[in-house]
Structure formats: C-alpha cells, structure tokens
Design a protein that fits this description.
444 residues, Aspartate Aminotransferase, domain 2, 2 domains, seven-stranded mixed beta sheet, 38% helix
Amino acid sequence: MNSHDDASANKQFLSFANSSRLTAENAQWIAGGVNSNFRIGMQPGPLVFERGEGPYLFDADGNRLIDYYCGMGAMVLGHSPAGVQRAVKEQVDKGILFAGQAQIEVEAARLLCDRVPSAERIRFGSSGSEVAQAALRLARAATGRRKIIKFEGHYHGWFDNILWSTAPALNAAGPDNEPVLVAGSAGQDAIEADGLAVLQWNDLDALEARLAVGDIAGVIMEPAMCNQGAIAPGEGYLAGALAACRRHGAILIFDEVITGFRLSRGGAQELFGVTPDLSIFAKGIASGFPVAAIVGRADLIDRFVTGGVLHGGTFNSQPVGMAAMVATQHALTQEHYEATAVYGAQLQSGIRSILADAGVKAVIAGFPLMFHVAFGLDRPARNFRELAQQDKASYVRFAYALLKRGVRALERGAWFISSEHNAEVVEETLEAVRGAAAEVATQG
C-alpha cells in the first residue's frame, strides 16, 4: 500500500443510518419517502438533508458532503448563495403571487433576451417538463404537422408524449439504424408514441432522411447530450440539423434545461454558434427556484397571443422565483465561468489520472462545469448506444465508495461543478477519489 491507500484503509467511513430511518418513517405519508422517482435507487438509499452551504450538503447524520449533484445541475452558484437569498427575502416582503404582472419578470426576460442568441421573445414556466410541452405545441401549430423527432438518450420531461427511449434497454430498442420507441414508464398511453419518431443522435444523414418524408413538425434535442453522459455534438452536426430543418419546413428545438447556464452564459447555442428556432431552459436559471423558460423566434412565441396556442400556469413568472433568477443571472458573469472552469478542468484531470493509476478503465468527457465519468469505455461515446456499453455496476460501486468518503456524485456518472468548488474542495475530492478507486480496483 502507498500512503494514500494506508490513509483510506484507516479512514472511518460515514454512516447514513438516520437518513435510512427517516426515509422509512416518511414512507408512511410520502410514497417511498421521496417526491421524485429519480431520488430512488442510490446506495445506501435516499439521503435526508438539513442544509446546504457553498459546495457542501449537511445530512441528517451530521455528515458534511462535497456535493456534485448540485441540485441535479441547478445550483450553479453553490448552495444558499447570499445574493440570491437577499433578493428572495426582499421580494417576499413585497409580495409572493399577484395573478398579474410585475416588473421583476420584465427584468428577468430582458436578461435572457440579451444573453441567449435564440431569445427574440420569451414565456416563463415552472419546470422543464412544462416548457418542453409548450415547445412541441408551438411546433405543431406553426407547421400544421403532428410528428416530432427525438433522439435516444435525450430526456425532455416525464409526460406521456415525450418520455420515450430516454434510457432504453438495448435488447428492446431495435437496430442501430432503425431504433424503435421504448416507453419510459408503466401506464404510458401507447397512442402518444404515434406522434414521435426516434433516431440516433449525431447522425446527420439519418436526420436528413427522416425529415425528407415531409411529416415532421419539429426536432427536439439536447444540443449537447447531457441527460445520458456528456457528449458533444459532432463537427457540423448542429448546423447541419438546423439547415435540414430549414429545407424541410421543421422547427428546431434545443432543450437547454441542463446545458443552459453551464456550457456558457448563453447556453450551448452560444458555445457552438448555432441558433435554433426555439429553446427551453430550467435548472440553473434561478439557483434552485422552480423557474423555466421557452424562448425563440418572435413569430413563433407570439403564437401564444395571436395564433390560438394556449400557454398558461398559475405560478408562471412567480415574483419570488423571478427575483431569484435575476440575482442568479447577474452573478453569472464571464469571470464566473472562467474561474469555475479552472477547477472543473483540474478535477477532471485529477480523476482521469487517479483512475488510470489504479488500473480502472474509464473515459472522462464533457465540459468544464459538467462532465461524465464512464467506466469500461475506451473512447468517448458519440451517442446513447455507445454510452450504453459502459460498466454501470462498477461505477455505482465507485459512487458509493466516494459517498462513504464524503463526496456525493450522481450514480449515472454526471458531475456538476459550481462556483463554490475551489482548489481546496477539489483536492479533498481527489483524495476521496484515490480511496474509492483503490477500493473498486480491488473488487475487480
């Protein structure tokens, strides 16, 4: 053993007994003790938290965890950012919900229109799933067509008409060149699948061929595939997709719920230089407050006013959420991205080196503020099917080994970085990675 292995062997691992007990007790009132199925299945079970501060979460067992969930990507400024807290408290004193307009929502809208290339006009919502539905409705209304193209591995919300082939078992997904739609949940209405076509992402020829049939209203995609993995678009793919949609009269929709405000201040569309017809944003938009937005061409968004397209919601542009959004966006300066990117790069480099030294085959790919670790791959994946060849079981063991050492990382391999993950936090994380890598390597 080297000194790092000795330290790991002598380390007192964290206990999560109180979280387990509370989750079991809470299941008397809350199904499974959780309010989202995406919180089920982690080892040793769902955790119960008391508070968050900077890069840390503090749980019911008194553990301090370095957090790379970052609220599933939402906490770009870390937990409990002071500026956002201050803005929210000031707005609460003024009012919580008006069922009318407030100037704070205008300030929020102007910020997005100034920063996001596709944002000529905007409407706010409360979740990514909701604004995805608004985008699909607009595409159908604008084209008079019904079918939407989506891609394997891309997630656009949990509603029946779009929760297809988000993480399909390969033995059910059909041939590579002719994938079939696979439902994501029991109870989904199979009729909804008639409105969808599914393709492999990063295959421009396949997209062109399907669009040429002439029945496609819209194409929805993550501009970088970050629900599964952290996969960049191939060279020319996004621009080619936009050109193909133009040729065949379809609407191109970017789902930037994850990529927005992580890949750059103006989203993936700014980073890659491709402006879609419509875009949707959520998660990092407002530091954990339930704010989402659909933005895009004015002639499309204005159909909510002049085209008979319904968009509603009691909590849309709720003033407290708008105040959180404005404060968050003001904090997302270019300096924020440059400084945070340094630590994101250091973390990725350190993980890559440690895993290699431990003899653990893995690919670390993605972006400075969001990346993915895939065990068992020889090269970065280009689509869902290539990513599905990863060794998920070994990575799940690795994630649990990290958790026992005080680092919380998603079991699906995603790591989210906030502005609070500084050099000291990165070094502490890498120390945990050394121990976890050694543990997993000995398990074979």
